[in-house]
Amino acid sequence: MAIVTIFAIGLVAGIITGQIGASGVMVIVPGLIMLGYSTFDAIGVSLFADTIASLIVSWTYYQHGNLNLKQGWWIAIGSVLGAQMGSFISPHIPEIGLSNSFGIFLIITAVIFWRRGNRKSLISTNKEQSINKDKKNNLLSFLKSNVVISGIILGLLIGIITGLLGAGGGVMILLILVFVMDYKMHEGIGTSTLIMAFTAASGTIGHAITGNLPHEAAIYAALGAVIGGRISARYANKVNEATLSKIVGTIFAILGIMMIMGI
Questions:
Q1: Is residue 95 classed as helix, strand or coil in its secondary structure?
Q2: Domain boundaries, the chain
């Protein structure tokens, strides 16, 4: 019975990953804790499931032409290094409001993506929108000109949080790709998911070394996540960008509220 439950938990986590490129940590960690696993073992399982599911999901986005690693590689390098640091720090840090902070972050992110979806659904041909876009592009051009340094530093911070929370960092990577590096929504999800696979793999290794990776639970959770991720990603690639932005925003809001309420 426990195996079926773990598989189902992984399935739901995979659906979330495939649809919005986010880690399944908000589903897997609390689910496994309810089954009696320690927090740090649950985080290890979450990272392992993220690794496998993210590879399948990113492959699905690649098949639809929605993968672009030109600037993403630098974030990947920084996040892999940071994930190792976070994994070794994780067992020594008490759980004091990290989930609440991340929940608030998700809700804020949800609002940003929902507003972006509304803007995308309008025909942006008027002059005022063009001027605003030009101003944004000036900032984006500045950030892009320092893409190596900014990518590694941002990736390092994302990686540390990944190791601490058991998340693959997909939410934060997606934000950087879409709002800083000006990726399209589908392209951002596909690319962030692949980067998340490397980040989560790094964190998984760290947890395996510290003995916080129960193999049976990890395998069944990953199996469910792969199936859910593949089905969800295929659907997401058929949805237009405005709708996808709203879907991402809605799911982020739900997950954020769940984390704050401790569900």
A1: coil
A2: 2-261
Helices (H), the chain: 2-20, 25-34, 39-63, 72-89, 98-121, 127-145, 147-165, 170-175, 185-209, 215-236, 241-261
Largest CA distance in the chain: 60
**CB within 8 Å of 221: residues ≥ 6 apart:** 6, 7, 9, 10, 13, 28, 32, 45, 46, 48, 49
pLDDT tier at 246 (50, 70, 90 boundaries)? Answer: confident
* pLDDT per position as a tens digit, 114-152: 666 666 554 444 444 444 444 445 655 666 666 677 777
CB burial of residue 8 (10 Å; 0-12, 13-18, 19+): middle
Q: What predicted TM-score, i.e. pTM, was given to this entire model?
A: 0.72
168: burial class by Cβ within 10 Å (0-12, 13-18, 19+)? buried
